[in-house]
């Protein structure tokens, strides 16, 4: 390797190290890009009727804010009332549990296996003593999460209102001869993200409706709120469906213990339907992702970016797959050791991603397209 190659290798290594150190910021930027893409597709859909882009953008923002407000109104107040009721019932349940434990301790065969009430009370007191520090840590974490949410919202609005300067700035990072190709890859990424968003919304809607109907048949309170929550949490792979069953089981146990078990069976059945039939059918029409690749990507992105990496693991996988396929497979490996044409051609490299006053003449080789097997 000559001196220039060594310098290039060092620059790449330093760049990779810097990107790794700021990965938490990068994942927030990617979240803003996904949200901006959602708003852009919604605005394009509305523009078919209103014809004016500015009005479509305004309606998209109003619709998104209104949707979140409606979801908050449907979900939060009902759960607050139920947990207040749970707070009233819980002391009575604990007293009943304590009396049952005392009755069991009188049995000589079971007394050795029953924990001492005093030891349990001591553990509870120790837990209460540690509670203030845990609450303080929770609020500090919540404050950091709130700041991250505000940052994502600001970035989303910037990217949504005026995306072209950021797109041009990104394309300027590529060599001039590759910018048009990179722009085409970005267009493929945008289209695939849109398809994934549509598929995810369909899947979330189906899960919400099935959960609502099932909980309504079982007579569980807040069936609509729990159904909506199940649909929203279905956005988070693997972990979301597990979390979605906690609240309806908690609400159901206030009525009757058998309802909690019935809710668990209902949610297991819905998730089996979703993972084995619904998601493969929908995503086969939208994006092509192998199950093993998806699971591996979830582990990888969760390890690298934390919980937000898990939430965004599917769109991250979609984008990574596109760049891997288009750049590494098509533009590098498919052209490996192909003989270039004998003639060489001069082209003027000047496009909309270069500065208006900038143009340069490059001598490039024209490569034939690889033959299909």
TrEMBL record:
Subcellular location: Membrane
This protein's record includes keyword Magnesium: no
Keywords, alphabetical: Membrane, Transmembrane, Transmembrane helix
Location, primary (coarse class): membrane
GO biological process, one term: transmembrane transport
Pfam families linked to this entry: AI-2E_transport (PF01594)
Record's signal peptide: none
Membrane-crossing segments per the record: 6-22, 27-46, 52-76, 135-161, 196-215, 222-240, 307-324
GO CC, alphabetical: membrane
Domain of life where this protein originates: Bacteria
Membrane topology: Multi-pass membrane protein
Record-stated family: Belongs to the autoinducer-2 exporter (AI-2E) (TC 2.A.86) family.
Protein's name according to its UniProt entry: AI-2E family transporter
